[in-house]
Amino acid sequence: LFSALKAQVEKGNFIPVGGSWVEMDTNIPNAESMIRQFLYGQKFYREEFGVHSDILWLPDTFGYSGQLPQIMQICDIKYFLSQKLSWNLTNTFPHHTFIWKGIDQSRVLAHFPPGDTYESDLKIKDVLKTVSNNKDKGRTHDQMLLFGHGDGGGGPTPQMIDRLDRISSITGMPQIVRSTPQKFFAAVEKSSNMLCEWWGELYFELHRGTYTTHAKLKESNRVAEFWMTDIEFLCSLDLNNLVSCSKIEEMWKTVLFNQFHDILPGSSIEQVYIDAMEDYTSLLKLYNEEWENIRDVVMPDSKGFVVNPYNWPRRQVITMNDDEEVLVEVPGTYIGAVSLATTTSKAGAFVLEG
User: Fold this and answer.
1) Ranges in the chain, pLDDT < 70
2) Distance, CA of 347 to CA of 350 (rounded, Å)
3) What is the spatial distance between Cα 18 and Cα 39, in angstroms, rounded to a whole number?
4) HSE of 152 in the Cβ direction (CA atoms, 13 Å)?
């Protein structure tokens, strides 16, 4: 089946868009996780389809972080599509086609289809709504209407295609052109100097509790992000390439998968969270194995060594190889020996100077 799909990609009948590993949540993951979504997503697109997606396609995610435009630009993604904010509970979002500016002033071209859906069945009311509901009349004339059985797959049916052909031939109906997302954004981009700007977060006002529901899962996600920092920091010390660090991609993909927008926010069924917590348990086991393997190579005599892979100072109790617990203070991004000469108290506290 996948081979047949790839053949349709080559013919232009199936269009890969998105650029990320999964349709991820963008509120809770850290920036590095979002960059890795694009790193592994685009790697998959290149290896399997021979393409690079320049469109971030997140129609169903529950709001969008203000740092995304900057990350998109870094990852060579120029366009953004969603329709989720049309579900807002209180405030109607004022635009359908606009320039989205990140918190660092990065700019990307964004479009929210005025039909307020990503699974239209191409009835006349959807076509008319796409035109009448457009909040950017006079600034752009092109609007996208997404049709087919979305949110679960299936695509358009023969009946939908037949309906499209008939609507296109009705005098007085809006002009409908079958196109691709790339051609649509390229056409809109020609008049993008007329578009309004939205600066910062695109906050979604309907799905509440997505920062708090299934708190244990959210904690596991954050801890897993720290695990990945630990492993990669230690790998960077292997200047002679003695360690393969081959499990890093597998570990990252586990983290990224569980950042899917219906997993991490807490909107899935019970079995999903049972599976996700099992993933984190397996990830912890792999983390400990990789940490020990890499440590034994880059620090073969690691007794009395302390590693702080983060860029902020830390003060905490650590367990030495002889099971002695000591309180240490270290500067950010530090690796070095615990020197008994720096003892500051009888309780066994050490202060390490970078």
Assistant:
1) 300-304, 321, 338-354
2) 9
3) 12
4) 2
